[in-house]
Amino acid sequence: MSTNTVATNQQMDYFDGHERIWVFGYGSLIYKADFPFIERRPAHIRHWTRRFWQGSHDHRGTADAPGRVVTLIPEYDAVCTGMAYLIVPQVLSHLDIREKNGYLRVVTDMHLHDGSVAEGLVYIATEDNAAFLGPATEADIARQIAASTGPSGPNRDYLVRLAEALRELRADDAHVYAIERHLQELLQQERAA
Ligand code: SIN
Questions:
Q1: Cα Rg for the chain, rounded, in angstroms?
Q2: What is the DSSP string of 29-74?
């Protein structure tokens, strides 16, 4: 099922009047910055953990065969590494459309890796959104990803590019790397068949 969060996000007025806003990316926003930004910096946020628990009907899958993309799940003391972008507020309308399948703007502190802390936004798909798929084993998640494709391309590319970007950031993320390993095994089996 899909959902559309654009209208809700556009009502969010927390940063009204600000000339610049920090946005934290933890999924495709790390490796695919298809929007103008003033600067970007590696960063982390606390008490959230990255999980491939959100369905993708519009980018990496279809309504009948959703793919899986990442969202953030609350977890005390967890650290989620990603990329912080400093943008002008006009860019939010592009991000709202890109993240429309269930993601809501949430205010968060982000710890920039130069040691400073900035308040900004992160797009999170919470478990009450219609596209939320929830937990599955990492092997099953890899199988679903291997089988899914959508308008933005194969779901496997999303996973592989995210894992590569996380390695570049030296991020500790056992969940993403385990799913990537399962995917590589599946691809080897495909090639051998
Ligand atoms: C993000 O990257 O911050 C949100 C999830 C996604 O678009 O992959």
A1: 16
A2: HHH---S--SEEEEEEEEEEEEEEEEEESSSSS-SSS-EEEEEEEE
Report CA(95)–ligand 1 centroid distance (Å): 10
pTM across the whole model = 0.96
Token pair of 142 as six digits = 């890899």
Kindly report, residue by residue over 8-66, the tens digit of the pLDDT.
Answer: 999 999 999 999 999 999 999 999 999 999 999 999 999 999 999 999 998 999 999 99
Q: What single-letter amino acid sits at 155? A: N
Catalytic machinery residues: 99
C-beta 70 within 6 A of ligand 1: yes
Domains along the chain with CATH numbers:
6-192 (3.10.490.10)
